[in-house]
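Q&A log
Question type: sequence-to-structure
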Amino acid sequence: MITPHSRRGRAATHKPIAMRSVLSVAIASSIWLAGCGDDNDFDNDVDIVSSATVEFVNSFSASQVDSSFGLGSTATPAAKCGVTIEKVSYDTKGAADEDTNATAALMLPTGDAPECQGARPLLLYAHGTTTDKSYDFAQVGNIQNPAVSEANLIAANFAAQGYIVVAPNYAGYDDSTLDYHPYLVAQQQSTDMVDALDSARDIMARQKRANAVNYRDIADSGKLFIAGYSQGGYVTMSTARLLQSQEKPVTAIAPSSGPYALAAFGDEIFRGNVNIGASRFAPLLGSGLQEKYGNIYNKKSDIFLDKYANAQLPNELPFGELVDTGKLPNNALFQKNPSDPRLAGLEQGKLFSILGGYDENDYLIKTDFRAAYVADTDKHPDGLWAENGDGLPAAMPKNTLRKALKDNDLRGYVPTMPTLLCGGNQDPTVYFDTNTGSMVTLLQAAAKKSAKNLNVTVLDVDIDNADERPDQQTLSLIGQAAMNTWDAEAVRVRVQTRFSQSVEKIKSDAEAQGNIPLIAFYTNYHGGLVSPACTEATRAFFDQNFNPVVNPT
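Response status: OK
Response body:
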């Protein structure tokens, strides 16, 4: 059996103490997880049955978008439209199918340009991981809200280019009364997204009939695009899967840097390669899966050290304050030198894992819980890690957490709409080869059987380590993707060049400030470097003249 970080000796020694303290200060900056019918008659097909409500939040002219959103270091184009921001409140379900509510940003293009009027495409956007309860995508331009960076990026790149944007905050955030977030629970998250989409479309139809000023000059064309980053990449793919199963039209999707291979990813982490952001993700995932399945633990202290067991995420307090007050560790997931024989010989993963993933006393997950999980990976290995494996989740895991991860793993899904998969291969937060790479292998195998309904483009934005990956392509066209009308090669070159320039700036700025360039690289990679690069690629991909796709046969 071949497993990640297998039981091999390590001859080299490491001196991570000074670097670990730098990593602890910088980790937070990396966690920005961190997006049909007749084109002219869509409004006439909407049944007004929703209880959704809407309120005005703010509006920006095109010049204000260009001057005040702080996106000068990104590839964001000049705004063609102004943007009006409204907030939709809607009903949805929690992980246990309980009734709850949630909110979403509704961004409407405004202005006299042709791109800002008439029938407009709609982007359903899924945001990345956050521990902040107050995260509200409707707070575009509001630097007091933790959503502002991602919200500004999407508003400028899509709403200001003529897209109607619906961006759910998800159940458990903002004004939602749910006291947890169903993190990476595929059925709930995709249902939440569709509920937000249906509610926003209901609102638009209602407001247009009322001749409301913000809705008077635009209409939903029926072209639906879905995109998201990190957690949002996962949510994008799970939402596309749900709509595809319902035979509802989706024009194209662009999931980026998502943990699609959730079971394999979990195994890799538990076997030693701890990702940056681990102590944020684990409490969110544990509580969401517990609400869904009811058997992950009897009490939180079964998983987490007693001193951390009562931590609640999402939280009104910023994550840094939770760390400062001893409610959670900064990033350490596991005990540094465990004595449990079931963990003997496991390595501590890559450098970022060694520096931040372990501590002798202040770690999150109890060693006996980890050991039981690892023992199950030995007996029932994931198909991605097993020798001659099929690349799919383990057939019959016994550990309850592994069962839950398998149930929410997206491997095996084959999208029938045009798809862009984007990410960066050195990502220390959501591992590219494990997640995007495993999906690509399975999709390539599916294309060999029948390429007719497959149209998947895969972009790795990072070529800085190309010499270390001579057999890995950074642009792959699967199925019918070579027939797309955009110049994929030109986009690849442009995005990768800009990415490399951004990496160089991050490292040189760190050195000039007396910081460690490698730590700056790691802590900015996922949220600060790959995210805007994939946003640029997504915008170019969606700008092709795609037509809505209903599940073809």
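Response note: The chain has 14 helices and twelve strands.
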